[in-house]
Amino acid sequence: MNKLTLLKFIVVIIVIVIALIALVPPNAPFMPEEKRFAYYTFPLLPPLLAIALAMATRQVLIALFAGVWVGALMVVAYNPLSATTQTLSWIIENATDSWNATILIFDFIIGAFVGVLYASGALHAAARAIAKGVKSALGSSFAGWFWGWLYSSMTTRTLS
Asked: How many CB atoms neighbour CB 128 within 10 A?
């Protein structure tokens, strides 16, 4: 971890601590009433934390886990051990749901297919073939529109 990444990580941790102190929920007994913020800002902390951590550390899964953990920390009244067990409980509950498990398996299959295409060189060959026809920014925009339209029209016909 280089110095810039470490500095970003420290800044994110400081922001998290300040946010956890500043955005105490309205029913917290240890915070005087006049020092509390409005309740509608409190639920924004976990997603903002996850986004900030993902940008600072470039580790999306760790950032998402931290965001869910901070949300669980808020739900269980700032008990870190209970927040960890609640987070793991939510993850297991959602991963074992039949609909979510189907989506996860589908994502794994698509990832494996893209990996095979990448390893075989097919993606590079397709990119070179498309790049031969694109000579300008306008051509690039048109190519993106055309391939998106083609994909959309093909999937719409097969699904309906």
From this structure: 9
Half-sphere exposure of 17 (CA within 13 A, CB side): 6
User: Which pTM was predicted?
Assistant: 0.58
Rg of the chain over all Cα atoms, to the nearest angstrom: 23
Per-residue model confidence as pLDDT tens digits over 25-61: 555 665 556 555 555 567 778 888 888 888 888 889 9
Gap between the Cα atoms of 149 and 104, Å rounded: 26
Co-location of 10 and 87 in the same domain = yes
Total structural domains within the chain: 2
79 in the same domain as 9: yes
Q: Are residues 87 and 116 in the same domain?
A: no
Written as one letter, the residue type at 141 is S
Domain extent, residue 116, equals: 100-159
Q: Which amino acid, 109?
A: I
DSSP 36: P
Residues of the chain with pLDDT under 70: 1, 17-41, 156-160
